[in-house]
Amino acid sequence: MELRTLRYFVAVAEELHFGRAAARLHMSQPPLSRAIKQLEVELGAALFLRSAAGVMLTPAGAALLEEARNLLDQADRVRVRVTAAAGAATLTVGILGDTTDRGATRLAAAYRRRHPGVEVRIRETDLTDPTCGLRARLVDVALTRAPFDETGLAVHELRADPVGVVLRADDPLARHDRLTPADLADRRWFRFPDGTDPIWQSYWSGGEPREGQVVRAVQECLQAVLWNGTVGMTPLGHELPEELAVVPLIGIAPSRVVAAWNKGDPNPLIQSFVQIATAAYRGPASLEQPPFTRPVRSW
Q1: b/e map of 123-135 (b: 16 or more CB within 10 Å)?
Q2: How many CB atoms lie within 10 A of CB 32?
Q3: Using CA atoms in the order 143, 148, 154, 159, what is the torsion angle rounded to 10 degrees?
Q4: Is the dihedral of CA 88, 83, 273, 117 positive or negative?
Q5: Out of 74, 194, 271, 291, which residue is the most buried by the measure of CB atoms under 10 Å away?
Q6: Please, is 175 exposed, middle or buried when counting C-beta atoms within 10 Å of its C-beta (0-12, 13-18, 19+)?
Q7: What is the DSSP string of 268-295?
Q8: What is the structure's pLDDT at 297?
């Protein structure tokens, strides 16, 4: 049995759906189905009951799931220990936006517990580079928000946050229960400098070209609203000064919190980081169910 095949099996066992598992593994369904069938042949046992109603684990499949999780967790630990012994136990993480995010806080605690010998270096970046230095190889992995140009990058979604528009609290629009981009068509928006990733720029401008103050950092965005009555988008749930208000914005896709890294990077610390991040962003209960073996991509 190959570790990759076991990762495939765990994905199907957790999703109980071949299509969802294939999407989670960033692969098409036919090769996933073939890999599972081959695994069943090798083991001489059916692992799933397949029917029109869906997929269920057999007793043999349930037994393998527990063992597969343990094996994958141990393999991950081996890779990290070997990397550490080779003197490369340093991981540089790029962070964009709110560093007080509870998901990030849980991730830091969980990663330190799991890999106390790994030194994590944090590089915080401004809003002009949503990849946090990945393309320049300044970081190994980024905790950031999508969408942005993903060329050459692997991206794994951790959470999706609805968005709102941030306004002065005394702005007449702040009294609304919700707004649409059309309600803000005649307003000045904060925007990013020329040369910023156009996909990223377009999303945070509500999908339209905007005029307004150029900003580079979160605090600059808030000050632009406070001082000039500028408007702009923000994920819901962030604490803001009482002089500001946020109104839910409909018609805009949620802001996706993601982990991103350079495709083909063999650093095992990245895989472990993303696996732990996946659990941390699902909530505290997920971290209480070790090992962290949810596959994030075919490595």
Answers
A1: eebebbbbbbbbe
A2: 21
A3: 50
A4: negative
A5: 271
A6: exposed
A7: HHHHHHHHHHHHHHH-HHHHTS------
A8: 44
- Distance, CA of 230 to CA of 29 (rounded, Å): 47
CA-CA distance, 291 to 70, in Å (whole number)?
A: 7
Contact call for residues 209 and 162 (beta carbons, < 8 A): no
Residue identified by tokens 């199907």 is 12
Q: Which of 49, 60, 59, 43 is nearest to 16 (CA)?
A: 49
- Could you report the per-residue pLDDT of 97-121, keeping only the tens digit for each? 655 688 889 999 999 998 888 889 8
What per-residue confidence (pLDDT) applies to 61? 93
What is the residue whose two structure tokens read 């156009």?
198
Q: Give the CB-side neighbour count of residue 296, counting CA atoms within 13 A.
A: 23
- In this prediction, the residues of the chain whose per-residue pLDDT falls under 50 are 290-299
Tokens 């999508």 label which residue? Answer: 146
Q: In this structure, is the dihedral angle defined by the CA atoms of residues 37, 3, 287 and 258, taken in order, positive or negative?
A: negative
Rounded-to-integer distance, Cα 265 and Cα 280, Å: 23
- Whole-angstrom CA distances from 162 to 19, 215, 241, 257 are 26, 22, 20, 11
